Amino acid sequence: MADTSDIKLTITFIDQDLDAEEKDEEAKRLLTQMKELDEVEEVNRVHEIDVPEGSKSITGYVVGQVIAFVKSESVKQVWGFLTDRLGNKPIEIELEVTKDSKKVKVKASSRKELEAAVNAIQEITKV
Fold first, then answer.
1. Residue 120: count of CB within 10 angstroms of its CB
2. What residues are paired with 62 via a beta bridge?
3. CA–CA separation, 52 vs 92, rounded Å?
4. In DSSP terms, which residues pair with 68 in a beta bridge?
């Protein structure tokens, strides 16, 4: 984990119409895009060791899942990026504020739902 980041985002593609390989492709695409963001301290695939019971994996990674570490002052820009890129994709986002161990998990399948989820997360976490 990046020492300077205090927000951990776990993004999971949950579209029922996609098979495991398609979800994985979505995760790889997001990973590549997020690596280009200055606001993201670190971004990786989620390793199988972190897999919740019952989850599937391909090549040691959780299918369709990306984890990113962000400084709190940059999280609004990252939310904007995620809303633009993932606004119409069924996803689940788990946000953890590492300094006080607050966790929030939301699901969204449209841009409107994602924007509402982001607003709720920001209100709850004061990010």
1. 12
2. 57
3. 14
4. 9, 43
